[in-house]
Design brief:
Elements (H helix, E strand, L loop, with lengths): L17 H19 L5 H8 L3 H7 L3 H13 L1 H9 L7 H29 L10 H21 L9 H15 L12 H10 L11
Length: 209
């Protein structure tokens, strides 16, 4: 029966302030979305969050709104900033940049999946969700700023300012991991950093001109 799938009074989460409840639901739902895709039901979302299904609709108007909020949460640049700042300064420059590329690519893969789900469940006639363009712009700008901080560690080795190098780095990683590129053709973080730092021409000792 349906009631068997709804958490009992003793199993339900303690009441939370609205913003905390919203955040808790999204944090619980994102892994489920990435695993199940747009076919996931609101009942499954509720089970993942440990709440009654009706609570989903008291917090979000519909399923597309849940997925949209998951996209916004994944776009949040703060986890990226913390992850980049945590890359040890003792590592060689190329190793630091490989780790940075891997961090950006991991988030990019999650976003690609979530954006695909949102397109699948949201009628195209509605257009993009309100404010979507601005939060994407803001998140990308904050990510570039965090990359610039990382690159400032190696400023004396750069031909251009860290802020411009961050633009090139972010753009190169995003382009190289684009969803339209077949998985088997996508560059690895190691390949991306090697090309970014050394270009595409072979050196003289590798047989270049």
């Amino acid at each position: 029966m349906y009631t068997a799938l709804v958490p009992s009074r003793h199993e339900r989460a303690e009441p939370l302030p609205p913003d905390d409840r919203r955040r808790a639901i999204i944090e619980a739902v994102i892994p489920l979305l990435l695993e199940r895709g747009s076919a996931v039901t609101t009942r499954e979302m509720a089970e993942a969050a440990g709440i009654a299904e009706g609570t989903i609709f008291r917090v979000f108007p519909d399923k597309p709104s849940v997925i949209h909020e998951a996209v916004k949460a994944t776009m949040d640049p703060e986890p990226i900033r913390r992850a980049l700042a945590a890359i040890p300064t003792t590592l060689p420059m190329d190793t630091q940049l490989r780790e940075a590329a891997r961090i950006l690519m991991d988030r990019g893969e999650r976003l690609t999946a979530l954006f695909g789900m949102l397109r699948a469940v949201r009628p195209p006639s509605l257009g993009p969700p309100a404010g979507a363009r601005q939060y994407v712009i803001d998140a990308n700008a904050a990510t570039r700023a965090a990359l610039a901080v990382l690159l400032q560690r190696h400023e004396n080795r750069l031909r251009i300012p860290p802020e411009r190098a961050a633009v090139a780095f972010q753009g190169f990683v995003l382009a190289g991991s684009h969803s339209l590129i077949a998985p088997e053709e996508k560059a690895t973080p190691e390949e991306m950093v090697d090309v970014l730092l050394n270009g595409i021409l072979a050196s003289d000792r590798e047989g270049g001109a």
